Amino acid sequence: MNDTKLHLVFGGRVADPQGVDFIDPANLDVVGVFPDFKSAETAWRSAAQRTVDDATMKYVVVHLHRLLQPDS
User: Fold this and answer.
1) How far is CA 47 from CA 58, 64, 67, in A?
2) Which of 30, 32, 48, 69 has an alpha carbon 20 to 30 Å from 42's alpha carbon atom?
3) Whole-prediction pTM value?
4) What is the mean pLDDT of residues 1-6?
């Protein structure tokens, strides 16, 4: 079995910078899907850095493998 741990990186405007309530989910910036956390983190840092001066923009890393196989 392949041991790939997929990660999704995306971002958008949030109602509260402390949360993940995205204001306009239809217009999220999907950075991409990555095969490991390290590459996802690199992409996340790059995207977040581009919007560092905008407190309402937030980028996140989602562990897709946890959604696809929640018991593992």
Assistant:
1) 9, 19, 23
2) 69
3) 0.86
4) 69
